[in-house]
Design brief:
alpha/beta, 6-stranded parallel beta sheet, dTDP-4-dehydrorhamnose reductase, dTDP-4-dehydrorhamnose reductase activity, EC 1.1.1.133
């Protein structure tokens, strides 16, 4: 397999990529945590590209603190837009294919039909806006790219909704969880598998794709499923978004259509409940 360099390798998705790469026996992958390779350090990035001459680059580095981004606009923009642009420029110079992870937050989420890649992106938060700007920067500087928009990411690694719910469910008698936001949980192991499949196939159907698990749910129903599978006995109360105000506005409906990625890669995608069960078995 050609050399692949992964930036942001110490985060949730980076750890999942390591897990899947080991499972598949893949070689030639260089995992670079932020301490070793900062996507804002152009000179450092140039050194990485010069040393490894990667055929592929996966960007897992991102600013993902959705509410903090409302106050830290410049930092979110530097990481999500400028960092993505730095990688895109270098990938173009070196003939490297860039695989980049984006988000359902690029959409306003005001509709009720699964979102396609050609639906208008109208972010309603700083996080969503800076991720969209990152997509646009990539498209402006290289043609050899895959952007995978994903949603509600969780795994056995790092901090995420599943692990938080399990912890809180064991600590408390009652939890109030939002029921009027609809989307699809995504097991980061499955997303990692999709990214590595693109590389294994040496796929050249470049562009923007949507990838999440199949099905749809609310945060409340997701939490209930977590408690059922984890055998956690906690009273779970559905509440509306208005009852749990946050600094950043979230899309009310961000279910994505995965037809394009399934066709391009000839893959099937597990239902979110099936993948949740797999994850829970590993916790």
């Amino acid at each position: 397999m050609s050399t692949t360099v992964i930036f942001g390798a110490s985060g949730q998705l980076g750890q999942c990529l390591q897990h899947v790469a080991q499972e598949r026996g893949l070689t030639g992958i260089v995992f670079l945590p932020e301490e070793q390779a900062d996507i804002l350090d152009v000179a450092g990035l140039q050194a990485v590209f010069a040393e490894h001459k990667p055929a592929y680059c996966i960007n897992c580095a991102a600013y993902t603190a959705v509410d903090k981004a409302e106050d830290e606009v410049d930092l979110a923009r530097r990481v999500n837009r400028d960092g993505a642009e730095n990688l895109a420029r270098l990938c173009a110079q070196h003939g490297t294919t860039l695989l980049h992870v984006s988000t359902d937050f690029v959409f306003a989420g005001t509709g009720n039909e699964p979102l396609t890649e050609t639906d208008p992106a109208e972010p309603i938060s700083v996080y969503g806006l800076t991720k969209l700007e990152g997509e646009q920067a990539i498209a402006a500087h290289t043609q050899q790219f895959f952007i995978l928009r994903t949603s509600w990411l969780y795994s056995e690694y790092a901090n995420n909704f599943v692990k938080t719910m399990l912890r809180l469910g064991r600590e408390r008698d009652e939890l109030r969880v939002i029921w009027d936001q609809a989307g699809t949980p995504t097991y980061a192991i499955d997303l990692a598998g999709c990214l590595l499949t693109i590389i294994e196939q040496q796929n050249q159907q470049y562009g923007i794709y949507h990838y999440s698990n199949e099905g749809l749910t609310s945060w409340y129903d997701f939490a209930v499923a977590i408690f059922e599978l984890g055998k956690v006995d906690v009273r779970t109360v559905p509440i509306r978004t208005a009852e749990y105000p946050t600094k950043a506005t979230r899309p009310a409906y961000s279910v994505m259509d995965k037809s394009s990625v399934k066709k391009a890669l000839n893959i099937s995608i597990p239902h979110w409940r099936e993948s949740l069960q797999t994850c829970m078995g590993r916790l």
